[in-house]
Amino acid sequence: MALLERTFFSLTSKLNFKGMRHILIPDTPTIVIPVRGAKQKYHPDSFIGFRVEPRENHNRQYVSHPLIYKDADPAPRFMDARVRAILKDLTGCDHSKVFRHRALLSISAPEIVFFTDEQLKIAQNDAKIKADKLLSMPPVVKVRAEEVQDISFDPALQGIMPNFKIVFTDISLGIPDNKRIIVVRENSGKLRHANGAERQRMNEIYNPRKGRKHYVSELFTAKCLPDVLARGQYEFVLDRACLQFEPDEPEYQSVVAYVYEALDKKQHYDSLLSTRHYGPMLFFLVWHKCLNNFLEHHLMAGRLDVASQVVKLYCLLHQKSDVAKAMTDFRDPMHVVQTFVSLECMDTSARVQLALKQCKELLRSQQQVEQNVAAALGQSS
Amino acid sequence: MPVLATGGAPIYNSLKAIRLMRHGCANRPFYHIVIMGSRRSNKGTYPVIEQLGTYDPLTNVHGEKLVSVNLDRISYWMAQDKVKIAVGVKQLLGLMGFLHIHPQSYITAWRVRAIAKREALSKQQAEDQEASMG
Amino acid sequence: MYLITRFLPLPRLISSQTLVLSFTREGASCRQLHCQPSQGRNLFPQSGLICPPLRPLLAPTSHPQISITRHGTNFFNKLPAQKLWKGVISVSKHGAQKGRGRGAGRKLAKDLNRGQVIGVGAVNMVWPGLNAPIIRGQEVVQQQMLGPDPDRHRKLLEIRDKMGRVRFRKVNPLERGWTGTKMGGKKIGPPDPVGNDTFEGFESVVLEYKVVSHMRGDGGKFRRVSVLSVTGDGMGLAGFALARAPAPNTALSMSKNRAGQRLIKIPLYNNHTILHDFHSQSGITEVFVRKMPEGHGLVCHRALKAACEIIGIKDLHVYIKGPKNVREVVKAFFLGLMKQKSYQQLAEEKGLHVVELRKEQFNYPKVLASPVHAPLRTLSDIPPNENLDFSTYVMGDRVMLKPVEEPSSILPLLPKKGRQPEGRETFLRKYKERRNFRRALIDLITEYGDERSFLAKQYPEAWKNYGRRNWNNDSDDDE
């Protein structure tokens, strides 16, 4: 404090202020009524500004969800080659869905060409590479820390800006958004770095990207999002979220978790098949151990292979769990799923056990049918 | 006459200033932080040598006043010859932390606090009087 | 019952020159014409009356013609209406041959009875038995003079003014062709059923409706109507035909029926456009037809547009080189449509895969056809100067000149050819003020439901559309 005083007086030594004292004024929003008739030269807003009324906060809030990656970091697990292989395998690659016409892309005249076999194969290979690119999954990372660094504190500036703060952005060319200097000077005289929401807004204002908004889009609010999801437009919301946010933002993770939960409740997993969101969705369900609905859905349909892959994923993500330890033979899908169900689902979900039973029945009947067909065709089984 | 590759007014050998230039419209000011000729007569007329930022004097819905500054280019121009910085811009850069805080900012802050204190005092006196009368 | 002749002749009634007066009340008898009205005495009190005088009942101006006298006749009452009008309208034989008195502006006989009702005249009176019931309830209706109707004469004149000329009947806007009065582009319904063919789902359109004539050997012009029409079911079946007949309706039906007998099956791509670009010719009229994607619409000659709607093509571009004679154009177009090759045919011809690449589908190679009978060629099999470009191959090695398009979204940034750079500078300087307006407007309407700022509720006097509109129609509670 003494140091600050000395610096202050040295800077203003040429100016003659007597009896100047620091008066701490609480940082409350108050209406400052200008002196009538006077020149209002030293009015708080007049240094370069206008009369200011207290603004209401913009009340729109993003939807919130508790299941965000805030404790353990999922990134190393997500980047694991085995995990990625399983996720890619389960996502699938249906060309008619991956390459379908997206609604906002304008239609141009189709080009028809003559291709030899080699040219066709090259084109199809290119398509596969493109498909891989289109199906590249948005990263699953830990939520970024909300701590905001203070830079300096100058109490002599108190009161200079009642009811508002000033946000400074560095618009030098060639700096990426996450490295940009964005600082905020507050009424208390504190200079700090901008927090996540402020950063996002400033970056969008001074470096706008198509599809991104500098305000809270109504789509992601509790008012709108349930309706959209009720219509089954999961992919649309997830695409918009990827466009709007960064993967380490808490808002993104909340929105995305909300969508996954809604999807899980209705068991509409197939709507995300052959899209880039299937992998992160599955990762989310496995990480947070919400597999009951998923297993029930796939076992009822008789998709034992999918169920066993998911259990393998579980073992990779929760390596210290009982299931991982109890698993002996990863090659037998029935054994894998049985172990999981017996250890994890006994007390939590009776439906999964029922589904497993149904699955067994289904497989048995399928086998029976195959045997009968083979016999009918005269082939020995 | 030399001209910046990005376009703008020719750079004469006269005194230049980094200053605020008012844009916007009636009842809605908006300032550009520019480097241009330092004379008062230059202010309303074009063209500027280079725009170095913006300043919006009206608070937005979140209670912020937005200032953008091209620090890279301001540093360049400050290092050049015959360039002065106007008081308003100096204050903004001071508050930003790029330069020292300008004395004018301290003065304004002190004066605001003084007014507030005076008003609080007179209000207190009025209340006391009422209490004593009633 | 009273039967009164009017002063102005009523063609139907003028033959009845007698005046008959009678009362239907009991005890009343017909008053004979020879009866002289008693002078001065009012023999017509309210109750009980036998012979009322004639004069007080009739308006002074309308005197019945009760005797044929010298000063009472004129040609108006000598001749029937038909004969009178004949004097006005008739055309001599020679004149008829020349075509006089025929056509749109010719005079017609005016029926002067129109707008008039028996019993209602210039004298606005209640005549029981004629324009009013005799007994109404328990009361006997009396003859009564009502107030004069000032508009009656005016209305009659209005009616008569409208009559007398051939007038064109207005066509419903939805049924119009290319023009309000002409037949070109007008739909004329499906062809008439022939045996078992009912032509269900068919529609015909007139492409050309001409009144043509030639000189006949036995004198005079022989006028006919020539109609070119196209008929089709909107799913690829269509035909066109020309027919000539003296009567317009005959010509129309002949044309569409003939077209119905000459149907061809046109192969379409996804039921909205042709299979591939083609070039076709009829005489010296050349037609360059290009396949277009969905939503492009029919960009072509109006006759071809009408024909395409009938065929079922929704997206097309056609450029016509040479004379734009409708018959030739339609012929060339149909010829080209018929000559289209299917993808399988093209694959067989070339011995290569026919693959479709769509930009909005990331150029995913979609194989439309592969050669089945012909051997699949490799690059080494193909001679170096062979044309492998699909678009020129289907056009018969013709290349259509494409105009250079400047995309409008980057127009402000590119200098237009020939413009001075100072002009561009000025434009940019002025444009930057409104550069973001559109985007900002959309954002504001999305956010607030109106073109306003977040301060508008606090300062409604500055809110331009205060209370006037809210696009989103929602409450601003969350703001």
From TrEMBL, chain A:
GO terms for cellular component: mitochondrial small ribosomal subunit. InterPro entries: Ribosomal_mS22 (IPR019374). Keywords: Ribonucleoprotein, Ribosomal protein. GO terms for molecular function: structural constituent of ribosome. PANTHER family: MITOCHONDRIAL 28S RIBOSOMAL PROTEIN S22 (PTHR13071), SMALL RIBOSOMAL SUBUNIT PROTEIN MS22 (PTHR13071:SF4). This is 28S ribosomal protein S22, mitochondrial. The lineage of its organism: Eukaryota, Metazoa, Ecdysozoa, Arthropoda, Crustacea. The gene is LOC108671153.
TrEMBL record, chain B:
It comes from Hyalella azteca (Amphipod). GO terms for biological process: mitochondrial translation. InterPro entries: Ribosomal_bS16, Ribosomal_bS16_dom_sf. Keywords: Mitochondrion, Ribonucleoprotein, Ribosomal protein. It comes from the Eukaryota. Belongs to the bacterial ribosomal protein bS16 family. Pfam families: Ribosomal_S16. PANTHER family: 30S RIBOSOMAL PROTEIN S16 (PTHR12919), SMALL RIBOSOMAL SUBUNIT PROTEIN BS16M (PTHR12919:SF20). Its main location: mitochondrion. Signal peptide: none annotated. It is found in: Mitochondrion. This is Small ribosomal subunit protein bS16m. One of its GO terms (molecular function) is structural constituent of ribosome. GO terms for cellular component: mitochondrial inner membrane; mitochondrial small ribosomal subunit.
From TrEMBL, chain C:
InterPro entries: Ribosomal_Su5_D2-typ_SF, Ribosomal_uS5, Ribosomal_uS5_C, Ribosomal_uS5_N, Ribosomal_uS5m_N, Ribsml_uS5_D2-typ_fold_subgr. Keywords: Mitochondrion, Ribonucleoprotein, Ribosomal protein. One of its GO terms (molecular function) is RNA binding. Residues 282-349 form the Small ribosomal subunit protein uS5 C-terminal domain. Component of the mitochondrial ribosome small subunit (28S) which comprises a 12S rRNA and about 30 distinct proteins. Its main location: mitochondrion. It comes from the Eukaryota. Residues 75-192 form the Small ribosomal subunit protein uS5m N-terminal domain. Belongs to the universal ribosomal protein uS5 family. SUPFAM superfamilies: dsRNA-binding domain-like, Ribosomal protein S5 domain 2-like. Residues 203-267 form the S5 DRBM domain. Pfam families: Ribosomal_S5, Ribosomal_S5_C, Ribosomal_uS5m_N. This is Small ribosomal subunit protein uS5m. One of its GO terms (biological process) is translation. Gene3D superfamilies: 3.30.160.20, 3.30.230.10. GO terms for cellular component: mitochondrial inner membrane; mitochondrial small ribosomal subunit. It is found in: Mitochondrion.
